[in-house]
Amino acid sequence: MVKLIHTLADHGDDVNCCAFSFSLLATCSLDKTIRLYSLRDFTELPHSPLKFHTYAVHCCCFSPSGHILASCSTDGTTVLWNTENGQMLAVMEQPSGSPVRVCQFSPDSTCLASGAADGTVVLWNAQSYKLYRCGSVKDGSLAACAFSPNGSFFVTGSSCGDLTVWDDKMRCLHSEKAHDLGITCCDFSSQPVSDGEQGLQFFRLASCGQDCQVKIWIVSFTHILGFELKYKSTLSGHCAPVLACAFSHDGQMLVSGYVTTCAFAPNTLLLATGSMDKTVNIWQFDLETLCQARSTEHQLKQFTEDWSEEDVSTWLCAQDLKDLVGIFKMNNIDGKELLNLTKESLADDLKIESLGLRSKVLRKIEELRTKVKSLSSGIPDEFICPITRELMKDPVIASEPSPCWVILGYTLTSDGYSYEKEAMENWISKKKRTSPMTNLVLPSAVLTPNRTLKMAINRWLETHQK
User: Cα separation of 164 and 113, whole Å?
Assistant: First the structure.
């Protein structure tokens, strides 16, 4: 269970952000202040509140060591504070002078990113307090920022709904529309989904927005293979804009809600939430809840197979297939029936006339089956072929390399998925070069070995198949 154990009501206006170190909780507010509390008894420190900003403070974050706190404000500044005595260490002015909405330390504490209302993003040297690099997004103001756990890149989210990915040299690696009505927050799970050779790691990223949705993405980046971001799923259930989301420190839990901010403590089972009611609530999880979160994969499998008709309807809406809810209800499609649907049953039994709509439904069901199979076997989802739904032995990508991208270390893939070589060759010969996952025509029939993925699979096999 989760229970409310403490409420902090010291701010005089909306609470915009809260952050934990190993021993402290920091909160900031529209009232222009930052407050610091001890995690021992939630008493406010003698040198709190911290005052300098002349307008609302939008975000605060601790350095990984917890010795430095950063805060940013509408006044266009990002300030660094000594958490032991409240002394101001540096005032860093956004070059454009625009209100700063978000700030975030890199995992190694060498850099601090700050994003502003005019779309500018700055990387500061956290030791010299000097500007290192700067850039900007095409449209909108920046409202979210998160560094990958290995620090090789970071993600920003804008009010236009774009996720933009930057490397540690401030080069834009990728930009993608993620939420229709604007992104409000994003966060990385600290635990990689899987490990591979040559430093290849897959990380889970959560984003939320004004469209009432939470989306899960799988992200990978190496200087050899380049960057890849894959949409994985949408978590539905919210009926209002989702303003905040956060992974627990061990990556086993994700919280999201219609609160202005939320944060997990790094070493205790505590969650802090802040709101427009000027308060910060501290919640405590018991060990039973934590154990339940750690067995999420097993539960997800059972949950999918045990879906009710209403659960299937919710899933359809999350996949942008809400027009089919009536048909599925009329035919009493529950979780087991959903997983057993075929191309023929969609056409003959459910009478879905549109070929494109049948293909979309079948593709979504295939993705669900793949997830269930990978969870039941313990095999990482990225190692499963979307066609055979088996562990890949010889993974390939259908690609059309571009010389300029190869020089930069990127591979331009036509649909973003890897497949078992034999299965993909058969697919292309029978389906006339259409993507098994997107149903779009592939620009090339060339199959390129995904050697790094193959090494990652072999390494996983050595560890798990003894």
Answer: 13
